[in-house]
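name: query_chain
kind: protein
chains: 1
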Amino acid sequence: MKKINLGQIEDQYIDKVGGKARGLDRLIKEGFCVPKGFVLFDIELDTDLEEATAFFEDSRLTRVAVRSSATAEDGEDCSYAGQFVTVLNVEGRLAFQDALKQCIGSLKTKLTDTYSKNFANSQKSGMTVVVQQMLVPECAGVCFTANPQDSNQIIVEAVDGLGEQLVSGEKSAVQYIEQIDTFHDFICDNSSKKIAPPLTKELLCQIYIQGLEIQSIMGVPQDLEWAVYNGKLFWLQARPITALDSVLETEFNFDKDIIGHATTKFNIGEMLPGAVTPLSLTTTVYAIDWGIRRMLNIIGANKKMREIPDFGCVFSSYGHLFMNLTQLYRVANTTFLAGKKNIDFSICDRELVGDENGIIAGKKKWFIPRLYYSFRYIAFIMSYKKAIKQIDRLAKKFIITHDNTPQGLYNAIDKSLVDVNIAALLHYVTSGHGGAMSSAVTNALNKKLKCTEKSRSVLAQMLERIDGIESADILHSLSKVADTVLLEEPKAKNFSVEQLQDYLQLVNSKVKEAIATFMKRHGHRAVREAELRNKSWANDEVAFVKYLKTVINGTLPSAENASVPNLKAIAKENGFKGMQAGKIVYFAKQARAGVVNREFSKAKLIKVFDVLKSAYGSLATKLVEIERIPDEDIIYFLTHKEVGQLVKTQNPKLIKKALQRRRIIKQQATLTFKEVYVGIPVPYIIDYSASENKNILQGTPVSRGIVTGTARVVQSIEDAEKLQKGEIMVAEFTDIGWSPFYCLIDGLVTEVGSALSHGAVVAREYALPLVAGVAGATKLIQTGDIITIDGNAGIVLRRE
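structure:
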């Protein structure tokens, strides 16, 4: 054991004495007033207790504060604030020994172990003890030399008596805040600004001035504790403010060159709705953004990839994803084939007008270049057959091989991201083709019918009964599994989820074969499947069993009465003749093929994403084993680059940031947004209660039919599990993960969606009426309401 007086700690011992002792020693050396005291380190209680007591008695300090000073405490990354013991008003030999034992014992408690695991990667720490003269102050408090909410502010909080009452939360403080850049005005201000006694303006100015001096000396903003004793200012603690790097909801907001741009949650908000994790944002979402930027580059809308920055097309605002329509409008200036109106209909299923209109990036190219790039555009979207083969081949061969070390696995993931980006591009070839053809049909219908709602209804009719849709097969394949289970065990209809799960462990080969067949084709799918944090069905047994139980208890929707539409007859019914009829029939056939191809390529893209999910899951397990992260879930709240940093070395700062992000995403998930913005999207709250007619809701007709039933508002998978047979599901969106519930419902209402959205595609295949784009549906309709949905007219009626 060693004992050194504060203010006399030599450099060779500075790392051994703990954060609290280091801060106090530095203050004394810089000339600030600090209560007298000493530090004890390398303490072994069994052998050093008597010697430590002798040091205390020799110091003649009589009444002291005995304070823990752990070596990992009061650092820039982790403060360990409140984790260790401080014992005040210690007098006498026995009291000192008891206080010393408490301080040493506080190094290993459940509280400190949890803090160390969560914020310091289980970083090892030693315990030293600071013994200081105990002051009985007139007032005391804290000083933040930079407000964690505004770094240009300095904060002082004060209470009568001991500052411990403030720090521990026992007593409310009087708070004083001043702007640092106008601090001189406060010093010179002789007005009667209220300062609660016993603190005076002179003492407050002294705290402000010395606090900022300490910050300058330490090099970083400081969390300081002070006390006024006999009218004199003493400093009791100096440590870095660790809260300054607190994560905000806007941390990953993209705001580069976006002023005046039209932005929307359409399309991307259907593919990956809700708040996304940083890992997904920097991998799967980046791939989607890269795919669109590369598409624009290939067709000549941006000659160089760097003309549009990373996340220039698909970006995050408050954790939610949006698409920059203005960047897509570049195509309108580049070719003769896709104007702004076409792009609006392709992405938003309607033309943006009035206040929703954003600027169109760039200038129109000259006639000859536009003609040339028009041919390039045609070549791009008509290469969909080649893209289908390429993405199918890529998905089959996509594996991430590594040497089974964390670094080797990370390097392999990093290398694989190139193929992930290419898979996204190939998907946008097929998606671009389908969108262009659908948009062409919509334009022709709008010109002829002069009614947007009627045009949408006819388009939905033309897109009915399309064979071979990958996503529509999910429910069909799962129904085969359910039929096989019921054939072997009819009582399975009455099983609980747990009983069904146990039963599936013991089933015969036919049931196992049916499950294996389903998993081979669809096991990589999931709710919000582009989100890496969401497990696929093949890797989430409980989720799969719940879906299977839903299908066992339901009935496969029947589309027997719905025949394949006669496109020529539909064209004739709506006034198309001759060349016009031939043209719209051609585009409708292409649009129907586009639906199949787009859903196929999306399934393959998600399969690539699923391999990435598994790889990151394995990496998370390895990082927990080597104590780089406290739990496997934390990896999703790090960016891809941050994961690489943690693979190389421990980084408590990153862990703390990840934990904050995990807390914040719950807040982000509750935020709501408008469909379209000009500029940066911000959360938006609409008072739907003020709607003139809350019983007639207008939307987009995307799957025909009329049905009346009981509404069930579904905002989570837990809500979906409550669906009863014959109910109408009302949701913000639908994605592939909702497919098993289609065997229970009689119809769908969604706030987001279009004729080409997943919900519309599957609903048409099973002849389920669907009205999409009903603003505020989940707010205006309550579970239990009786509603009628008219999928022909795009209207939802609430019944009394």
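note: The radius of gyration is 33 Å.
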